[in-house]
Specification:
The structure is a homodimer.
Chain A (H helix, E strand, L loop, with lengths): L1 E5 L7 E2 L1 E7 L2 E7 L2 E5 L2 E7 L4 H8 L1 E6 L5 H9 L13 E2 L8 E2 L4 E12 L3 E14 L3 E2 L2 E2 L1 H4 L3 E3 L4 E11 L18
Antiparallel strand pairs in A: 2-14, 3-4, 3-7, 5-6, 6-11, 7-10, 8-9, 10-11, 12-13, 14-15
Chain lengths: 192, 192
């Protein structure tokens, strides 16, 4: 039986990431999970305007996305709990830079993407930053035959509904393939 | 050691959803995983312009997001493999409607959100539809004490890098809480 929940966003889980930017000359990191992909090389960050990090993204037109593993859950949650106005979060991690120079990245995260800001969608309470991935770095340890293995990345998945962090499970089917088994079995070709 | 991968999007996994719209008077469903959250009640769909479904979203300014479980992986993948121009995908599922009347939803998916189109971001190859959740339905069976339990939803997570579908694992930490353990232990208060 279906139950109506009201206007309840259930588009979860989403990956929890650490967003990096230079704010007032210093690397700052905040944790968010309201992220998305817009086209293959473009990502979005839905960031409440209260975040200190937003100022740095607007000023430099660059940011980084760092994917922490479950081992970094305390550091990640900390970065979401406390503002860079009050805490020096850059001391939690070792920072490195890529070609953009103003998108600080976290050495301890196995995946790092430096991004150029290409658009902003303005909501009353949120800045939605749209970025183009400029360059991606990963730990050699998460590569298998040149492809990132997400079981090794071990990301922190977020569900708002229960306010918990979840692990990634195992892979179980091949995309753009397993559905071929249904072709011509259940669905008639439309007459034209 | 860090390895540079070039401009490689690694913002995964994301939840695979079935997007519903009325196209030429008929419900149509397509599978996408390039989704996101912009602010708590606003979602985004990054949809290649080749999709048949895009026409219906533009015409009616409504769409639905349905979250299939791993048991529906063949049907879900099928909806991503084949276009509504060639196949009548509405015959795969039982359709129901909510208050928007033009956002067809899938009975067999345990979570359904009907959405109103509030903005579109135009990319060369993709329409990014931004929607406001108008109303959400769920199967009674996925509710525990009134909250959606994502282990019961059992969503299909997508990773583009290896082109596989993955399961959700288990929850392991409380958000906005576990990071408190680090407070005052590692990070000094900034001097003002």
């Amino acid at each position: 039986m279906k139950v109506e929940l009201g206007a309840k966003n259930c588009l979860y889980p989403l990956p929890t990431v650490l967003v990096g930017a230079i704010v007032n000359g210093k690397p700052n990191y905040t944790a968010i999970a309201h992220v998305g992909i817009m086209e293959p090389n473009a990502v979005s960050l839905g960031m409440n305007k209260i975040h200190h990090t937003n100022q740095g993204i607007k000023a430099n037109k660059t940011f980084s996305i760092n994917i922490p593993s479950t081992k970094l859950v305390k550091e990640t949650d900390y970065c979401g709990l406390f503002s860079g106005r009050d805490k020096n979060k850059s001391e939690l991690f070792k920072t490195f830079f890529g070609k953009l120079k103003t998108a600080p990245m976290i050495e301890e995260c196995s995946i790092n993407m430096e991004c150029e800001l290409i658009n902003t969608v303005d909501f009353p309470s949120h800045d939605v930053f749209i970025g183009k991935v400029a360059s991606t770095f990963c730990d050699e340890a998460v590569l298998v035959d040149g492809t990132v293995d997400f079981s090794k990345v071990d990301p922190i998945l977020f569900v708002m509904n229960d306010r918990n962090y979840w692990r990634l499970g195992s892979k179980f089917a091949e995309a753009w393939n397993i559905g071929k088994e249904l072709d011509a079995r259940f669905v008639p070709k439309l007459s034209i």
